[in-house]
Design brief:
Length: 296
Amino acid sequence: MQMIVPGEKDGLMLSQLLVQMAGDVPMWAIKEAMKKRDVRVDGVRISGDVRVHAGQEIRVFWPKAVVSPKQQDKALPMPQIVFEDARVLLINKPQGIQSQNEDNPLLGDSALTRVLAYLKSKGEKTDCVHLCHRLDVQTGGLLLFTKDDEAFESAMQAFSQRSFQKFYTCRVKGCPAKREAVMHAFLRKDAQISRVSVTDYPARGAMEIVTGYRVIQGGEYALLEVELITGRTHQIRAHLAHIGHPILGDDKYGDRMLNRTLGVKRQQLWATRLVFEAEGALAYLNGRSFSVDCPF
């Protein structure tokens, strides 16, 4: 089970939230999941009852006894396919599902497991299917999969060399003074709390980040096109918040009170364009640009 804590549940104890949100799951299963540390809050295993807050991601792995065969076999909808051929599959991932399960990629509801189920339904082999990059649970948009090892190697080389161009669309608080810029900063990740911090100067354990943006539409809540030049954890969200323009709907790095006032419950960040530039098995796609519309 995976969910985002809704605004009206802000401040509840984790056990209370699970009782209210877990449907027909019995109380003994909730207690067992918490006892065995099978509950994660923002990616961190929880060993006891804690208070949760709006916008946090909750993941629960229920005991097998509470998952009926009917639920296990239930087919989940395949995300929109943007492009597919014999070597690659490009989808438009919806918000609210993970790119893949961190503990076991082949389990749970994720973009990867939905893609595998789709390909199996067509009779295709799935033993060489790879997820090439990731999007946060609450970030929707273009997500690339490859169907063979050569294509995966080509994609990984292109991502590591930053030859693929990745563009996002987001709506932010306020409007940057410069209509267009390439920003440089340093990001440090705290894995224990699943959070990053950004500074303008090098710090121990920090990595350089480069983020470009262009104002598409100005005003009190500007619409930006963002180019992810380096790909670090939560980079776009944290970098824009660092310069005073957090993404609407982002409670982790943004303005929670503003989000409540505006009634924005979903993060307004979408991966909207991917431009191919690769060597090897994917060179035939060079120069191809794929795009999707964002829903805000």
